[in-house]
Amino acid sequence: MNKEAVKNYFIINGEIISTDDMRVFDTIKISPIYEVIRIMDGIPLFFEEHVKRMRRSAEIVGKTIFRKDQEIIGDIKKLIEANNVKNLNVKLLSAYEEGKKETFLAYFIESYYPDEKVYREGIHTILYHYERKNPNAKVLNVSFKDEVNKKIKEMNAFEALLVNKEGYITEGSRSNMFFVRGEKVFTAPKGEVLLGVTRKHIINVCKELNIDVVEENINIKDLDKIDGGFMSGTSVNVLPISSIDDKKYSSADNNLIKAIQDGYLNLVKNYIEEKKSLCK
Q1: What residue range is the signal peptide (predicted)?
Q2: Are 247 and 126 within one domain?
Q3: Which of 94, 109, 124 corresponds to the end of one domain?
């Protein structure tokens, strides 16, 4: 797999290793289980839920992550201290090779956080016909990742919306999708998508705001009937969609989406403040 660790050091089974030596990535042949966590002010955002999802992904494909939660948080702390980096995405990766024990990696990856202009104007997205084999398991599929990223680049898009064989939009290539129609928010049913941590918190924010969330897929034939939409993810929070292929939307100006954005950002702020207070 790609030698994607950035900065000066990464972690292998709790040991600090220089990124000058990334031979371990050459040994990973079987699709590993992984998770990406955003580090903000030195705090791993929603750490507990990310690790829980990582373990669930492993169970779905018949594997076990043996590294304990305390060891994993220790790995992340070592990574932050060794690199003196407090704001970047960290990737956790559990890999198995034939006849060998688990290799657990923690490393920083290239991370992109949209600026205010992107949130203000929204993003261009495209439709991409593809279905995940195990939608609830976060397993690295290098060929899919390369193919969809190539298409996104060709079309000058930010994200690709995955469409199943029935014509329904399930999720994004690296995100969860939400659509707004009237005073309701629509998102794909739990069993058909990767259950994003950000997705879960957005649904909770909607409940607190008394916004109805309907777990129902949107068919591409009905894209003219929606008022807007947004994607959610570790790095992007709540990011409005300005277009899907040639269809235009005023998502960035939608009051419902604005309220959800504000609610989610307040949740993130409160989480970081709470974790910092516990560390004092």
Answers
A1: none
A2: yes
A3: 109
